[in-house]
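Data availability (excerpt). All sequences and predicted token strings are deposited with the supplementary files. A representative entry, Thioredoxin reductase, is shown inline so that the format can be inspected without opening the archive.
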Amino acid sequence: MIDVAIIGGGPAGLSAGLYATRGGLKNVVLFEKGMPGGQITGSSEIENYPGVKEIVSGMDFMEPWQEQCFRFGLKHKMAEVKQITKENGIFSIHLADKSTEQAKAVIFAAGGSPKRANLKGENEYWGKGISTCATCDGFFYKDQEVVVLGGGDTALEEAIYLSRICSKVHLIHRRNEFRAAPSTITHAKNNDKIHFITPAVIEEILGDSSGVSGVRIRHTDSNETEVISVYGLFIFVGYDVNTATLKQDDGSMLCECDEWGSVKVDLSMKTSVEGLFAAGDVRTQASKQVVCAAGDGATAALSAIAYLEHK
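Structure token line:
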């Protein structure tokens, strides 16, 4: 039987595997249907991870993680997990090939992904001027103008963050009303660097071989169009967490989740189910930064070790 099954091979899952195996657990298996690394491997440049002074691609950044984590005995099972259940104190990991593995504890680090806006040019320039993380990529547009698309808390909060770095932030939303908290809306509207463009939609993302060069927008109240010349477009239209595997046969979730589907945890990464821990972007109030996901994974592993020792 597996001591700890880790679901997901991003920074949270790999860090959990490192700390669990180095902490003395002998049978730790990481389930990831592809090569470990997570969505960060799609980033073109990383320059804000503490201790890594070079600017590297996400793929190059994650490569040594795998070698380091597997050095201490972490096993990688290249398989897709379809469902996780628990009965009589034991977890069952149901795989796509219809087989089942059993585990004493589970660290759930399946992550998530930002929603796309399905705009013309979005696929072509994704990662080439289009970003879903102001903290990650805002600095690349220091003292430049950028566009933010969205109307929720994340969009306005990220626009406020970008206003500290960029010369001007064009905030585009399809409605005049915003879904963000009233205090956040007031904060953003009192910011001289944020230019509200509502109601409006982006009709096309413009660019060339170098990446994004602007956006063509349409003002929906007048139907007039205009082009805003920018090199950076930040899209915040939602986030999908990968919690489908926690869904039980009766439609309920294995553990308690919030209204957006993120897993509720305490400071030790414990969920509402004993022996089940969650780490990284899949948990509530995750900051969606590699360094934070790694910390979550380490914390979850230490909690799992303590759980197994107590059990």
